Amino acid sequence: MFTEEQINRYSRHILLKEVGGKGQKKLLDGRVLVIGAGGLGSPIALYLAAAGVGTIGLADADEVDLSNLQRQVIHFTPDVGKPKVLSAKEKMEAMNPDVTVRPYQTWVTADNIADIVKDYDFVIDGTDNFAAKFLINDACVLANKPYSHGGILQFDGQTMTVVPGESACYRCIFPEPPPQEVIPTCSQAGVIGVLPGVLGTIQATEAIKFLLGAGELLTGRLLTYNALRMRFREIAIKKNAKCPICGESPTITELRDEVNAMNVCDLEH
Question: Which of 207, 67, 88 has the alpha carbon at shortest distance from 150?
Fold first, then answer.
């Protein structure tokens, strides 16, 4: 089933009773989509590739900018000006030739996201704006695709996992985007560079656990983290019967773009 090189590469996984050879085969057969190849997407993509997740989709229309390099660790100085999905693909395939990286050099929209997510087992949101976050939630709920939400700003981060039909979704907590003047942009507020590493690795862990069918997913809980105080906090969340997309009488039955939602700083650009 495995080559000698693969047995050596994944030996520390295979030693784990929760993984073993069968679990590693599940990872190699797994398909995970990462939307956003920036701060959160960088550690997510690297760890999924290192773990041997067989097919990894990367969606992002942006190019590498010098200001990204303080936190987007998958990109290097010579990559400035290069499409992020291609820069990330190079690093992932160099790390692990077992994986197939599918780049989507585009912004996800109501017109294209359904066609992208349908081919994947698990979706990870590493985006930088509320419009994308609500769209990803809606697309995954409507397509019955489990996904991990993540967001960061300044010294704070949050993450949760959504399993449609079983757990609360993003709109159960936040029915609609906040007013544009409420949340500052990245250039206004900043973000500590190590923060997406903490949240992104948690999101990658959720995807790996889902593919393995091992452990307990971060469902029904919003995990928050403050780097200055070095504190994690869990907030219990329940499905909202009045949720506009997964509630008892949903008002959202097709995908739409939140045209008035503003950019945030990985809450990734």
Answer: 207
